[in-house]
Amino acid sequence: MTKEYDLVIIGAGTGGYVAAIRASQLGMKVAVVEREKLGGTCLHKGCIPSKALLRSAEVYKTVQNSDEFGVENAAPVLNFLKVQERKQRIVDQLHKGVQHLMKKGKIDIYEGYGRILGPSIFSPSPGTISIEKNDGSENDMIVPKYVLIATGSKPKTLPGLPSSDHIMTSDEALQLNELPESITIIGGGVIGIEWASMLADFGVNVTVLEYLPRILPLEDEDISKEMLRSMKKKGVKIITNAKVLSEQVKEESSSIVVPYEYKEEVKEIRSEKVLVSIGRIANTNDIGLQNTDINVDKDVIVVNENYQTKESHIYAIGDVIGGLQLAHVASHEGIAAVEHMAGGTPHRVQETMVAKCTYSSPEVASVGLTEAAAREEGFNVKTGTFSFKAIGKALVYGDTSGFVKFVSNSENDDLLGVHMIGPHVTDMISEAALAKMLDATHWEVGETIHPHPSLSEAIGEAALAVDGKAIHGG
Fold it and tell me: How far apart are CA 109 and CA 37, in angstroms?
């Protein structure tokens, strides 16, 4: 016997479970199909566990430097097993929270692998979901009015890499029981830099190989330069314009040798471990798309402004549709999709309004256009920058690295972008995101009274600096 639902969601990651909760609030009868654990990649293999490790690395580094704060302490000892245990406690607590939310919303959970079927005895149109259950028993069939695909993504790998326990993606790295003495990180994007920062703070010898001319290539160029300086200060070796020769990577004894092209020369780097962090690829295979008219372009599902696929009753959100592959983006896309199903007129997520964060040390956060992108789009640009070195709270905190940068339209003062690198900027970026959402000008942000002493004073000063009016600027 088949069960009928208003909405069936394939995938219970951040996008999927948030969409399920919103649909339940709107009165829909909802089911979620998840092959692993509620919470998906973000909770179990991404955002939360990696940030837990980053926090432990930050504490370890702080304790090592405690003399600077007048706290004399014997040399700290890092117990990495306890670091991992703490990480898992956090993940488990949040997992229980998601389970509670599903129960509260009376959302049915199917543990297994969901596939979309074509027209059948169950439905004249594609959309019936066949669930291959984890316990191996007979498949369940559920018939929804709407389907939401939220299957997320998985780490990309380099073709030709040998199979080795010494070569990892972030999935495997999160499960390490002990730290390596050395590691080569292939990829200097957000994930690569977070891991480089963390492992360097833990005392690992880190080398980053980046194919493009600069690390954090999607951030403002000034941010990339400052991060490069900070990573070098930590002892991280960063090589840009490096093309990894993946088919020539070889395992020797207890190490991995990674050849790469640099300035028309082939060089090698040897390390105990290799971490591949070159991005993520959408999970579109084997979910039944071939049974529908859904279009897939460049490995992601094509959707319209309401997150509908070519099959108008089947929606898709999150990493599986490309764009900004961020948990908070997937959540808002999921909410927008179910509100459209319910007859509402939600607003599509606009990339220039989304705050992006890198949780390295120093942290990076940004919203809107970079200076280069703004110029490429034809804007006449003016900028203002303010260093944390002139912020009292940063001195008190013990970290004056980085700055805040504003990018504005010189013709009408519209705020085009805000870019930050420094202490706790991932907690500060929401002010800039709100300013963007409200279509504020830089001078309106500058006129906002920021509390003293606070790190957020750098935001107000950078905004004033656009017109040369920063109070504490040199």
Answer: 10
pLDDT at 474: 58
Asked whether the CA dihedral 122, 125, 129, 132 is positive or negative, the reply is positive
Angle of the 47-64 helix axis to the 190-201 helix axis, nearest 10: 30
Question: Which residues of the chain have a pLDDT value below 50?
Answer: none
Instruction: Return the CATH number of the domain spanning residue range 362-465.
Output: 3.30.390.30
E strand or H helix that includes residue 12: none
- State the catalytic residue, choosing from 44, 313, 452, 472: 452
Q: Is the pTM of this model over 0.85?
A: yes
Residue 292 tokens read as: 């529908």
The 10s digit of each residue's pLDDT in 410-420 is: 999 999 999 99
The CATH fold assigned to 167-278 is: FAD/NAD(P)-binding domain (3.50.50)
- Give pLDDT, residue 125: 81
Domains 167-278 and 362-465 share a fold: no
Between CA 257 and CA 269 the distance in angstroms is: 6
Helix (H, G, I), strand (E, B) or coil at 273: strand
- Starting at the edge strand that comes first in sequence, how are the strands of the sheet with 273-276 ordered? 167-168, 273-276, 182-186, 205-209, 237-239
User: Could you confirm whether 340 is annotated as catalytic?
Assistant: no
H-only helix segments in 343-402 = 371-376, 392-397
